[in-house]
TrEMBL record:
Keyword set, alphabetical order: Cell membrane, Kinase, Membrane, Transferase, Transmembrane, Transmembrane helix, Two-component regulatory system
A GO CC term attached to the entry: plasma membrane
Membrane topology classification: Multi-pass membrane protein
Domain of life: Bacteria
Protein name: Histidine kinase domain-containing protein
SMART domains named in the record: HATPase_c (SM00387)
Keyword Protein biosynthesis among UniProt keywords: no
Boundaries of every Histidine kinase domain copy: 26-221
């Protein structure tokens, strides 16, 4: 099952996707360089009070405040990572996908395994971002709807200089009829297809009820 409804205006959709990426990068920088630094400053000032003389009630409130600021910093970092992980620009697609899979894994309930044949070199920035977003969208769909216990992400380069990205889950799958009733899933799949086509690549999806879903993107290097 690889046919998806076409976007009514692919050029407009492509422009919207490009605009979204620019906004994500801006917000990620603001979170890291602006809000992130402010939170670290607040944490520093809080830590300076560690040896202050507190009543038991004040000490409990102080410890709660410490925990709250740590959780806020962690959440801010996670949001910045979701918007635009620095590892993608610093180390490339393979490293970013490996880290993404580690973060999505839920011990005891969901395993997300990343595999690569080790041949992958750095790609143009646009290609790395689009392939990362495709993977991110596929994992989000699997987490929300597939009821999967295992997801595999494969990134490989063939001898024909073709790059292949494949995401496979062991979830419940879905039929064409179900897809038409799930507007969010349909929109996500359409965006994945468009991202692949923007790179001159090919998008293919297979899903069978009870047998999971596989998504494959291939493009020439």
């Amino acid at each position: 099952m690889s046919d998806l409804p076409e976007s009514t205006d692919p050029i407009r959709t492509a422009a919207l996707l490009e605009g979204q990426e620019e906004e994500r990068q801006r917000l990620a920088r603001e979170l890291h360089d602006g809000i992130g630094q402010l939170l670290m400053g607040i944490r520093w000032h809080i830590d300076q009070l560690a040896d202050a003389s507190f009543t038991e009630r004040q000490r409990n409130s102080y410890q709660e405040l410490q925990q709250l600021i740590l959780e806020t910093i962690a959440t801010t970092r996670q949001v910045a990572f979701d918007l635009m992980p620095s590892v993608l620009s610093d180390f490339g697609l393979e490293a970013a996908l490996r880290l993404l899979c580690e973060r999505v894994t839920r011990p005891g309930s969901l395993t997300v395994d990343f595999q690569s044949n080790g041949k992958n070199q750095r790609l143009p920035e646009t290609a790395e971002i689009q392939l990362y977003r495709i993977t991110q969208e596929a994992l989000t769909n699997a987490l929300k709807y597939a009821q999967a216990s295992r997801i595999e992400v494969h990134l490989s380069e063939t001898d024909l200089y073709q790059l292949v990205l494949r995401i496979v889950d062991d979830g419940i799958g879905f039929s064409v009829e179900e897809l038409t009733r799930r507007a969010q899933v349909q929109s996500g799949l359409r965006n994945m297809k468009l991202r692949a086509e923007l790179l001159g690549g090919r998008f293919h999806m297979e899903s069978v009820p009870g047998q999971g879903t596989s998504i494959e993107v291939s493009l020439s290097r």
